[in-house]
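Give me structure tokens for this 299-residue protein.
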Amino acid sequence: MRDQNWDDLRFVLGAARTGSYAGAARRLGVNESTVTRRIAQAERRLRARLFERNLGRLTPTEAGAELIRRVERIELEVQGAEGILSGADERAAGSVRVTSVPLLVNRVLVPALPPVLAPHPHLGIELIADPRDLSLTKREADIALRLARPQREVRAVARRIGTLDYAVYGPLERRGEPLPWISYADTMSDLPQSRWIAERIARDEVAAPQLLANDAETILQCVKAGAGKSLLPVAIGEREPALVRLENCPPALSRELWLMVHPEMRDLIRIRVVMAWLTATVKQVLELSRGSPEGSLGP
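Here you go.
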């Protein structure tokens, strides 16, 4: 293909990974009309429709999915070559997309960014705060920090890097008051935290929550605002001066923290640097929250 043709395929990959023309435009730093025009150009050249719109989201057609698989293989080969070349001087260069739930991104990863960015001026990190499990095999992200043992994406390389303990926290300003529960929306009822709160409400025979949210970051903000109490990670709650732990007992529940990466990317220098930073950051936060990390951290 001519260089211009290869360039068109960046827009096809962007649309596939974000599910929309607007999302691809944001990722590629162009306007939405450019994305639609370049994808239409690729479809005319290939004489095939690449996407269908389903419930407001772009879904690859059979032809589109086959094209995307081929282009992703080429992309990985190019990135591997770049990693080998940049490895000649052991320099971490290029962009790495890291995804996790908003609470961990905002409260754990963001405060720890300077130590990894300062010594690596050619490294770029794109943080994707999303409660959904974005796909590594579809290249929606390069590295994922997950709150459970991976059940899908069998091709991804995964290892446990710690255990996140949870406890009940409330607003410091309302200490000693009876507080209502804040829990998760019905769509999140499968979460261990949601089930624990539901069981606790049933056991204590108290009123059902008036306030629900679909994300732990939002629940944290609600507790800080004085709206009630909820189950939060100890590593987060202990670092929030506006919160107080309401029950000084063993952790209510614990969740494993898993780090995942695409197998064909794990040896790239920039990936190794970011994974080492993620592992060290998580372990440091867990150690500080527990006081004694022995027996609690993963291998």
